[in-house]
Amino acid sequence: MTRVCLGECSDLSRTAIHQVPGSTSFQSSVAIQQLDGMKFSSEVVAVIEANIDDCPPNVLAYALEKALMEGALDISVLPATMKKGRSGHLITIISRPEDRRRLEQLLLVETSTIGVRTHFVERLVAEREFAEVKLNDACFVRVKIARDQTGKIINIQPEHADCVAIAQQTGMPLKEVFEKALSLYGAGGKT
Question: What are phi and psi of 14, to 5 degrees?
C-alpha cells in the first residue's frame, strides 16, 4: 500500500490518499481542519487538466456535460494562448480520486486532446444544507447555506436555477429574485 500524505500525517488530523493494494486506484480519507478558529472538512481531490486548441466548441460542451454526469465535482474552462499563437482552452476537472481514471479517459476519448495531467490536492469544504424560501404563493427558491464544522454560517446563496426559473416565469429581473430570496431567508421566511 502506498500512502501519500499532505503535511503532517502522524495523526488523523490530516487528509491522506491511500492506494488500493494491487491497483492504480486511489481513495481519499476525510479529516477536519481548523483555520482561524473555524473548522472545515478536508479531503483530497484529483485535479485533471488538458490543453485543447483544435476541438469544436459543441464537442467540448458535450464532453464537459458528460463529465459532470460521470461524477466530476467541478469543471472550469479558461482561455489560453497555445504554441504558435493559437487560441485554445485549459480544461480543469475536479473529481474524487476514485473517479479520476474514468474522467481522464473521457477527456481523451470525447475531445481532441492527446494527453491529460492529473495531480492530487487537498481542499477544505464547508458543510452544505438547503432551506426553501417562499417568494409568493407559487414560487419557492432553495437557498444553500454553508457552515463550518461548528455550525457557523459562512455563506448563504440562492440556487441559481431556481432563481432563473422564477425570473423567466414572472418577468422579474434575476438580480431582484436573488435579492428577495436572500432578504426573505434573513427575515425568517424559510419553509
Answer: -120, 155
127-186 maps to CATH 3.40.50.11010: no
Q: 150: buried, middle or exposed (CB in 10 Å: 19+, 13-18, 0-12)? A: exposed
Q: Are 50 and 117 in contact (CB under 8 A)?
A: yes
Domain ranges of the chain: 3-125, 127-186
CA 142 to CA 163: how far, in whole Å? 9
CATH code of domain 3-125: 3.30.70.1380
pLDDT in tens, 172-188: 999 999 999 999 988 76
- Per the CB < 8 A criterion, the answer to whether 12 and 53 are in contact is no
Residues 43-67 pLDDT 10s? 999 999 999 999 999 999 999 999 9
